[in-house]
């Protein structure tokens, strides 16, 4: 047991993979590490560690996403005139700029968080970006990133050894 180091471990935490011997140790583990014990379905798994159980888990996750998307598509706000008009304008401007724009269905959290806009006077998209660095579990959200900004300029504050904040770069 990784909590008490006295008994043989019988249980394994689905979230952090720590071994426990009893319900008491499981509760202590959750309290000490602020672990909720719920497996993170979207956690990064390297190819070397990928098993049949991971494949089955991913399949079930995709089935859940499909059901959620179907339910969201039936939601009444999908059919509201303002939602359709804004989305139509965004897609139309993307098509003019030769951009293949794809959007999530209404009801998805990432769809609600998205703040991508198109400025008609400048003829420019301002993107909502989420930078995810899976190996260090770091996520950064950027809003209003102009479409003429290069990927190197976007990543410079996070990975450049000279111009980035040392704490952010180290993470």
TrEMBL record:
Superkingdom classification of source: Eukaryota
Keyword Ubl conjugation attached: yes
Classification via SUPFAM superfamilies: HIT/MYND zinc finger-like
GO MF term set: zinc ion binding
Keyword Transferase: no
InterPro entries: BCD1 (IPR051639), BCD1_alpha/beta (IPR057721), Znf_HIT (IPR007529)
Ranges where the HIT-type domain occurs: 1-35
GO biological process: box C/D snoRNP assembly; maturation of LSU-rRNA from tricistronic rRNA transcript (SSU-rRNA, 5.8S rRNA, LSU-rRNA); snoRNA localization
Any one of the GO CC terms: pre-snoRNP complex
Keywords: Isopeptide bond, Metal-binding, Phosphoprotein, Ribosome biogenesis, Ubl conjugation, Zinc, Zinc-finger
Matching PANTHER family: BOX C_D SNORNA PROTEIN 1, BOX C_D SNORNA PROTEIN 1-RELATED
Family named by the database record: Belongs to the BCD1 family.
Function: Required for box C/D snoRNAs accumulation involved in snoRNA processing, snoRNA transport to the nucleolus and ribosome biogenesis.
Quaternary structure (record): Interacts with FBL, SNU13, NOP58, NUFIP1, RUVBL1, RUVBL2 and TAF9. Interacts (via HIT-type zinc finger) with the RUVBL1/RUVBL2 complex in the presence of ADP.
Protein name as catalogued: Box C/D snoRNA protein 1
Organism: Balaeniceps rex
Gene: Znhit6
